[in-house]
Design a protein that fits this description.
The protein is mainly α. The relative contact order is 0.18. The mean pLDDT is about 90. The protein has helices at about 1-15, 30-45, 45-50, 55-75. It has one domain (about 1-75).
Length: about 90
């Protein structure tokens, strides 16, 4: 769950800054998982991966690998990837 932890830590930093809810990795709800799936799916878009051309291909691949691994870790925990997402996930 190291990839998922990295993603959740980042999401919690953003949530802290914007006064949003924190995600507890030890007590994930389906609502939390769906929010993470949605964020991860969005992060897998080419625009996001490459930061509109500001990120190198190597960096983009690094983030893509992280996001895909985090999705798989959520699935391994029993959460289902909702088909309503745009599905940049392979």
């Amino acid at each position: 769950m190291k990839n998922l932890k990295k993603v959740i830590d980042h999401e919690n930093k953003l949530a802290e800054y914007f006064k949003g809810p924190q995600i507890n990795i030890k007590a994930l709800t389906d609502e939390d998982a769906q929010r993470l799936f949605g964020r991860l799916d969005s992060n897998l878009s080419p625009e996001s991966l490459y930061q509109d051309g500001e990120r190198s291909a190597a960096q983009a691949v690094k983030y893509q690998t992280l996001y895909i691994a985090a999705i798989k870790e959520l699935q391994d925990m029993g959460f289902k990837y909702n088909d309503r997402f745009l599905s940049y996930y392979p």
